[in-house]
Amino acid sequence: MSTQPFIGAQEYFPGIGAIPYEGTGSDNPLAFKVYDAQKRVGGRTMREHLRFAVCYWHTFCNAGHDPFGPGTRRFPWEKGEPMATAEARVDAAFEFFTKLGVPYYCFHDIDLAPDADDVGQYEKNLRHMAAMAGERQRATGMKLLWGTANLFSHPRYMNGAATNPDFAVVSRAAVQVKAALEATVELGGEHYVFWGGREGYACLHNTDMKRELEHFARFLAAARDYGRSIGFEGKFFIEPKPMEPMKHQYDFDSATVAGFLHAHGLQDDFMLNIEANHATLSGHTFEHDLQVASDHGLLGSIDANRGNAQNGWDTDQFPTELYDTVGAMLVVLRQGGLVGGLNFDAKPRRESTDMEDLFIAHIGGMDAFARGLEVAHALLTASPWEQWRRDRYASFDTGDGKAFAEGRLGLADLAALATKNGEPAQASGKQERYENLLNQYLLR
Ligand code: XUL
Ligand code: CO
């Protein structure tokens, strides 16, 4: 590994070194207060539990544009010409990853390499940039958590990609998925993501939803088969989102995607990548959608961000709410960890224009999840929380309750038991007791 603080000819984040752990007594904005990579929580280090990833698209490509105006951040790797920018950007990215001290990153094909309508040119661009990223991975020890293809920005995908009513567009989408899978394999990527950006509809009058969903399943199976044929051994993740950009998206939430995967026999190769802000857009909490995925054995990875309580859209803010991170880590720890990781699919606000803000935002997210990990671990292993939950269901552990749970009592048997036993005694749900315990452990 190189000891030089930057990779290429230029340092893009001068004045910022490796981010240290300084603890909660420090007021240094460029230091971790909780995330201490080698600190052990239970049997694993924080680094091993949390498996943080930086996303390429927001952090290095998104200068903060919104529907009312262009970007505000002046990225020093913008060179005015797409390929020169892509080459400078990869150096900036690996400098950032190394200084922040995360093990993983994630990308879309056209974050990494310039897009092109000409298929040959597109493939050439991606191969060139993947080779550069590979060199930098070997120099720094960085790893790719997952790759994906952007099948939603180009105007050709306005009516969807794999679910497009026009076969020509469906097959054009395969160019990108094939190339992105090849790049993921070349870079040792652990997994591959499908976020159904425009897989959905704007108007049901012109849409044959059943047919589009059948095409979607065929496309995913074809991608799976191609991935396996070129040596991809990881999981394919579907990332649910209910709306935006489409009025209705097919991968609405965890429950919808779990049903879809089972209906089409895809559940052995595919899992879910749950994004916090997507869960809240679907009317659930982050923790709810994680739990649904986990209960199906399908929780693979997380896009770690948050929405805004007053806005009904995908604000992709950095996760700083400790209640959310504790809730998420309770689900993750109970299932024994993630095969994927925690990818910061999040962007600093448009008004946050200093390059150091990119670091500060990630530090906040990493600290919030590290604290969530500590508190969730303590609640699960050193508090009465799990026992309380188990006690609530104790009537199913023995006797008639157990017989029912094991399928040995019919409806008439149940009714006869109730007739014999009389009105059930009241059993408090005791929500406030759990809420107070969580706060008590957060304050410790
Ligand atoms: C969009 C979103 C995507 C996916 C990858 O809302 O979350 O960035 O994570 O395509
Ligand atoms: Co995402």
TrEMBL record:
<feature type="binding site">
    <location>
        <position position="345"/>
    </location>
    <ligand>
        <name>Mg(2+) 1</name>
    </ligand>
</feature>
<feature type="binding site">
    <location>
        <position position="275"/>
    </location>
    <ligand>
        <name>Mg(2+) 2</name>
    </ligand>
</feature>
<feature type="binding site">
    <location>
        <position position="239"/>
    </location>
    <ligand>
        <name>Mg(2+) 1</name>
    </ligand>
</feature>
<keyword id="KW-0460">Magnesium</keyword>
<feature type="binding site">
    <location>
        <position position="278"/>
    </location>
    <ligand>
        <name>Mg(2+) 2</name>
    </ligand>
</feature>
<dbReference type="InterPro" id="IPR036237">
    <property type="entry name" value="Xyl_isomerase-like_sf"/>
</dbReference>
<keyword id="KW-0963">Cytoplasm</keyword>
<dbReference type="InterPro" id="IPR013452">
    <property type="entry name" value="Xylose_isom_bac"/>
</dbReference>
<keyword id="KW-0859">Xylose metabolism</keyword>
<feature type="active site">
    <location>
        <position position="111"/>
    </location>
</feature>
<comment type="similarity">
    <text>Belongs to the xylose isomerase family.</text>
</comment>
<dbReference type="InterPro" id="IPR001998">
    <property type="entry name" value="Xylose_isomerase"/>
</dbReference>
<feature type="binding site">
    <location>
        <position position="303"/>
    </location>
    <ligand>
        <name>Mg(2+) 1</name>
    </ligand>
</feature>
<feature type="binding site">
    <location>
        <position position="316"/>
    </location>
    <ligand>
        <name>Mg(2+) 2</name>
    </ligand>
</feature>
<keyword id="KW-0479">Metal-binding</keyword>
<feature type="binding site">
    <location>
        <position position="275"/>
    </location>
    <ligand>
        <name>Mg(2+) 1</name>
    </ligand>
</feature>
<comment type="subunit">
    <text>Homotetramer.</text>
</comment>
<feature type="active site">
    <location>
        <position position="108"/>
    </location>
</feature>
<keyword id="KW-0119">Carbohydrate metabolism</keyword>
<dbReference type="GO" id="GO:0009045">
    <property type="term" value="F:xylose isomerase activity"/>
</dbReference>
<keyword id="KW-0413">Isomerase</keyword>
<feature type="binding site">
    <location>
        <position position="314"/>
    </location>
    <ligand>
        <name>Mg(2+) 2</name>
    </ligand>
</feature>
<protein>
    <recommendedName>
        <fullName>Xylose isomerase</fullName>
        <ecNumber>5.3.1.5</ecNumber>
    </recommendedName>
</protein>
